[in-house]
Specification:
β3 and β4 form a beta hairpin. About 40% of the residues lie in helices and about 15% in strands. Strands 1-2 form a two-stranded antiparallel ribbon. The chain has a two-stranded antiparallel sheet with strand order 3-4. With about 160 residues, the protein is α+β, with helices and mostly antiparallel strands. The protein has 1 helix and 4 strands; from the N terminus they run ββαββ.
Length: about 160
């Protein structure tokens, strides 16, 4: 086998810094320029710093509208529950009232149809025995705003 010998060189403080053409922006992440205890400056990997702790959330006050809503919610719920209980107790009476209203509507409809029919029937039966009545009316007036006079003649 063939072995190659490598020469190990160290920098002394009088020598220039390594990579004089390397810009600070070209240094890869995690590598920094460090000064060793002997005064030699070199590039070295440095331990990663712990990321900054996340900010602690600050407790914010509860808005007034949220407090009001939270306080009114049980009241509104109780009112709805009371209305439901009241309707359940009132249901038989409401059903009876609707039945009575429907009966009243049926009575009004029957009266609206039946009374004109009864009147028509009664006129035809009573008027058949007598002759027909003729009424003549004469009205006269003088001028546009004059007093009107009239006569009625029964035949």
């Amino acid at each position: 086998m063939h072995e190659t010998a490598y020469e190990i060189a160290t920098l002394t403080p009088q020598q220039p810094t390594p990579n004089p053409g390397l810009l600070p922006t070209e240094i890869p992440p995690g590598v920094q320029m460090v000064t060793l205890p002997g005064g030699i400056r070199t590039l070295a990997y440095t331990p990663q710093q712990a990321p900054p702790a996340p900010p602690v959330p600050v407790a914010q006050p509860i808005p007034a509208w949220a407090k009001t809503t939270a306080l009114l919610t049980p009241t509104i719920g109780g009112g709805i529950a009371a209305a439901g209980v009241g309707l359940s107790y009132a249901a038989p009476g409401l059903i009876a009232m609707t039945d009575a209203l429907w009966a009243a509507v049926a009575l009004i409809a029957a009266a609206a149809i039946g009374i004109p029919m009864l009147l028509r029937i009664s006129r035809t039966t009573t008027g058949a025995g007598r002759g027909s009545t003729h009424i003549t009316q004469n009205i006269t007036a003088t001028g546009m705003f004059g007093k009107a006079n009239g006569t009625i003649n029964h035949h």
